[in-house]
Amino acid sequence: MVEQKVALITGITGQDGSYLAEFLLKKGYIVHGIKRRSSLFNTDRIDHLYQDPHIENRNFILHYGDMTDSMNLTKIIQEIKPDEIYNLAAMSHVAVSFETPEYVANTDGIGTLRLLESVRLLGLEKKTKLYQASTSELYGKVQETPQSETTPFYPRSPYAVAKMYAYWITVNYREAYDIFACNGILFNHESPIRGETFVTRKITRATSKIVLNLQDKLYLGNLDAKRDWGHAKDYVKMMWMILQADEPEDWVIATGQTTAVRDFVKFAFEYVGINLKFENTGIDEVGIIDSFDKEKLENLKIDLSHLKIGDTLVCVDPKYFRPTEVDILLGDPSKAEKKLGWNREYNLQDLVNDMMASDLKLMTKDQYLKDGGYQIMNYFE
Ligand code: NDP
Ligand code: GDR
C-alpha cells in the first residue's frame, strides 16, 4: 500500500490555505493545519473540510499555533513529521503592515526562519520540503517590466521587507543545509473567499451592496494602481507543483497581464448592468453612472429603481493611499509555463464573474436580514 503523504499548512484559515487544503485532500494527502486561537470561531473558510476529532483515521487535523511561537511550531513538526510544509501564514495586508511593522517582521519574516530551523534541528532536512509564500510585492518600485525570477527586488512596505527576509532565508537554508525549500513568487490572486479588505473583494462586495440598496458609495484609494490578477484556485495548484519539481528552485507565478484598479471597478459594475464613467471633479476622481445595460438587468432580475444615470457610485478617499505605493506589477511566468506546465483555467473576466456571482448571492442574505429588521454592518475598511 502506498503511504499517504503528510502536509502541514500554516495559514490554513486564509484564502490560499483553504483552497490548498481542498486540493491536497483530493490528492490523498493527510492535511494538518495551524490555526490561531481567537475569541470567535475563525474557520469559516475551512468549515466544509472539518472532521470530528473523535473519529479515527482523520485526514484533516487542526492544531492551535502561531508563527511567533518557535516551541509551538517545533512541537507540531516533531509530532507529525510532514513531507511538505506550505508556509502561507502571514499578516498579508500591505496597508496594515505600515501600522504594525514589528509584528509583521516577526510573523512574516522570522516566522519563516522558525519553520526552517525546526526542520533542521529535528534532522528532517532530507524528508521535509518547504514552500514559502513569496510575493510580487518584493519587486515594489519595479526595476524592469515584466518581472521575472531575475528581476532585482525593491520592497516598498514593511510587509514586503519582511517577505524579503523570508525569501532569502529560504534560499539560504536550501544552499546551506540542502533542504528542498522553494519560493513561489506569486502575483496577486483573488477569489470569492478573498479577504474583504483587499481591493478586488472590497469592490465586488460594495458593487453587490450598492445594487441591492444596502450601501450608497464605494470609497477607494489609488485607482491608477495596476496589478497582475489571477484566480487563487489556479495558483494553489502551482504551490504543489513547485514542491514536486525535480530540483528546489524559485518560481514566478502570474498571468502576464496587468489591469488598473479603475478598470476592475468598471468590470464589476458591468456585471450588474451598470456602465460607469470616471470623471475628474477638479478635486478628485469619481465614478458615475453613464448608462444601463437593459439586457443584463433583465437576466439578473435586479431592481435598480433606486439608481439613475449621473449618480456617483465611486469616490476617492485619500485615507486609502499608502505611504509608499507599488504602482504597477506585471509578471513573466514563462519559466513556470515551460518547466512546470503552468496554465490557467480562469482569465480576469472569469475571475470578476466568479466573485460577483458569489457576492451578489451573499449580499442577498444581508438584504433578507435588513428586511427582517436585523442590523447589517457596512465596514468601510
Ligand atoms: P490571508 O490573509 O487570507 O491568510 C493569511 C493566513 O495567515 C490566515 O490563516 C491567518 O490566520 C494566518 N496568520 C496570520 N498571522 C498569523 C500568525 N501570527 N500565526 C499563524 N497564522 C497567522 O492570505 P492569503 O491566503 O491571500 O495568502 C497566503 C500567503 O500568500 C500569505 O503569506 C500572503 O502574504 C502570500 N501571498 C498572497 C498573495 C495573494 O494575492 N493572495 C500573493 C502573494 C503572496 P487568521 O485567519 O487567524 O487571520
Ligand atoms: P496588494 O493588494 O497590496 O497588491 O497586496 P490590495 O488588494 O490591498 O491592493 C491592490 C492595489 O489597490 C490599491 N487600492 C486599494 N487597496 C485596498 N486594499 N483598498 C482600497 O480601498 C484601495 N484603493 C486602491 C492599493 O493601493 C494597491 O495598489 C496583495 C496581498 O494579498 C499581499 O499579501 C500579496 O503579497 C500581494 O497582493 C501580491
Task: Give a nutshell description of this structure.
The protein has 381 residues and is an alpha/beta fold. The protein has 11 helices and 15 strands.
Secondary structure layout:
Layout: E1 6-10, H1 15-26, E2 30-35, E3 60-64, H2 70-80, E4 84-87, H3 94-97, H4 101-121, E5 129-135, H5 158-177, E6 181-186, E7 189-190, H6 199-211, E8 218-220, E9 226-227, E10 230-231, H7 232-244, E11 251-253, E12 259-260, H8 261-271, E13 274-280, E14 285-292, H9 294-300, E15 312-316, H10 334-340, H11 348-371
Parallel strand pairs: 1-2, 1-4, 2-3, 4-5, 5-6, 6-11, 7-10, 8-15
Antiparallel strand pairs: 9-12, 13-14, 14-15
Helix pairs in contact: 1-7, 2-4, 4-5, 6-8, 6-11, 8-11
The structure holds NADPH dihydro-nicotinamide-adenine-dinucleotide phosphate and guanosine-5'-diphosphate-rhamnose.
Guanosine-5'-diphosphate-rhamnose binds near residues 135, 197, 199 and 202.
